[in-house]
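Take a careful look at the protein record below. Let me know whether the structure tokens fit the sequence:
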Amino acid sequence: MDRNSVIGFLLLGVLLVGYIFLNNKQQQNAAKEKAIQDSIALVNKPKTVPTDTVANLAGTQLDSAHQAQLSGEYGAFAAAAVGTEQTTVLENDVVKITFSNKGGQPVSVQLKDFKTHDGQPLMLANGSFNRLSVEVPANANKTLQSADLFFTAAAPQQLAGDQKAISYRLTAANGAYLEFVYLLKPGSYVVDYDIHAVGFQNILPGSQKFLTLQWNSQNDKQELDMQNERLNNQVHYMTKKEKHDYFTLQRSAHEKLSDELKWVSVKQQFFNTTLIAKKADFASADINTKVPESANIVGQTYTTLQIPYDRSADFSFPIEIYYGPNHYKTLKSFDLGLEKIIPLGSGIFAFVKYVNKWIIIPVFNFLSGFIHNYGIIIILLTLFIRLIIAPFTYQSYVSQAKMKVLKPEIDELKAKYGDDQQTFGVEQMKLFKSAGVNPLGGCLPALLQLPILVAMYSFFPSSIELRQESFLWATDLSTYDSIMHLPFNIPFYGDHVSLFTLLMTATSFMLAFYNRGMADQSNPVMKYMPYVMPLMFLGIFNRTAAALTFYYFLSNLISIILQFVIQKFVISEAKIHAQIQENKKKPVQKSKWQEKLEEMQKRQADMQQNQRNKK
């Protein structure tokens, strides 16, 4: 066996050991995560009562054995262990909430002004997974979830100002009780949720300083693109110190937040459910998440919130629950930073959120105030943006024209100095200086336009106003337009054909071809990059919002028209050439920085020449 074979076997061995190690680690992590999820599911699993004890539901009396069984299982709350589930509805113009006496909690929440992508009623909460539950003591060693117990419901009340209220009470054997009071105002997405614990200081351990609120939320599929929905399924929160942060369900299965929290929000692509502490803050939160392998469930969250408990005889903790859209103006009206859940700019481009807040959103809202066709609004918004950047665009075209005039002289310098890039750079700078040309004149305007381009990339996919709004062949501007569904999936592209994306790509190629003379033809990267980028964008943008690709297509089209008009009828290359020749006749005034730069370049060129002479 030769040395190469030995090395090959050793490398295979290392790879095998590495694979086994990583595989075991992944299995351990998977087992650990499954254990966590199983334990959470066990805690939140509704408790059931043996079938024979359900005789109480028929109005008969339980015998002593069954009563003892319930007392052992439910302690002070044995009387609430069984009952008949009854529901009550509170609704206003925008939301319909169904409450149940089992748990004294909302069991379904419908947003009346919205539909799912397939025309079904849009439910923010629906089904047994969704729970809003306070932990109560059964006895010294056992706790229960209020969601598993039957409350006594009071009759719904009609209050002043068309406000509607309902209350649920869970009474312990010693007279202590837990009460939930819900209040819904007209035209509001907010439900006031007050937790009252009366006499609980007598049944809770003396050292207990917190009440535990368990909030489980399941996000069902609402939009056309499940992949995009899951990317936008996040948990956001705001600390007492005004720090906002979030995590995505697909990337984090568990987060423990030890800071005091003002609010916690489960965000979907266009809607959210948020719990807001009105007076005292939540003491902490422990959040577990799960993304089920389901075609209809986007994600699930299990949130445990600690409520500070002062052990008063009549304890109250008021909460506001927001069930509603991710609408910037609506969320901003709370003055709690809730609007930060809308992704208007993040990461290295976080600064573009100010472009959206101060320019894009105000103009968009102004236009939508009197124009109801959002395709036309996008056209006008595009024209407005191009008007703002018009001075930079014109300067860019002038700079391109100057570089085009100088190109023959630059080519002569390349031929003269060949591979001596150092000397070529020095001479090229001299040429630019004598001609009065800024070589970065065409780049800087493009860089100044970048924040607006990135701002639009964040704004359009996040704008709920565009949801299910149609324009031309696009039936929903908030998601991709599709003119053809493919029977197979193309890697890095998808299983559909977006016409706006094709138009955007085609106009990008046209711009690249139109400006081909400005690229360095001797450099393959610079020569072909303008053609490679549109191909890359074709795959990236095929799944993005039709509003965004329509905007980029329209912006490209305007650029092509402007460039043709300006360079054909506004900018005269002959005049520019004459002006450059006049500039060359003027004495060149060098700045100190330029003098030092040229001196350094000359010194480097001399050193290279000396080295060549020695060889």
In short: The chain has two domains: 51-342, 352-469+547-585.
